[in-house]
Design a protein that fits this description.
By secondary structure, the protein is mainly α. It contains 9 helices and no strands. The protein has 2 domains: 69 residues, DnaJ domain (Helix Hairpins), CATH 1.10.287; 94 residues, Alpha Horseshoe (Serine Threonine Protein Phosphatase 5, Tetratricopeptide repeat).
Length: 206
Amino acid sequence: MNDPDYYKILGIPSSAGDQELRAAYRRLARECHPDALHNLSSAEQVSAAEKMQLLISAWATLSNSQRRLEYDRKFGLESSCARRRILIRSVHAAASRNDVEETYRVAHELLLHFPEDDKGCNVYAESSCALGRKLLIQGGYASAEFRFRRAMDVARDDDIKLRAKSDLKLLKCRLREHAREARKNHFLRKVREILSMITGGRLKLP
């Protein structure tokens, strides 16, 4: 008898993260729960019970990192899953060192390899916001705006989207302040030039 395809049973890709795995299991488990089967025939209830057993087996295997690794290796899936886990660990390691650029680089690689992975998208969005904030402090307004907007587009988590939106608002405030300061400096420069012309350079503004 062939081993069941747990990823197919749960309707998720082999690269799925913990959050996606948990959501799929809970959704399908509710559908097969005995409380939802009162109106089904006996044969349908038996079929649903069998499906529930498969779901429980899938969850028990894939929710345990060691069991999942062994299962993936058995079906030749270890390269994709291992790559994802290594990239996520590398992101966390770079973040723990406060290496914003390296965190973003690895998170971007994670997104390129697993564009449909919820966790990967959220990790990338958070790293993009962090890099955007650093660029904002350095005065790289255009690059910072790109990072914030990209984070809003990619993030799957609403809280991350809101933080990116807040960062974008802060950027716009900084741009207005920068514009006001530029106008003020331009005005003072013109005043100095006029005074210099009138006084022959004898009177200078501080």
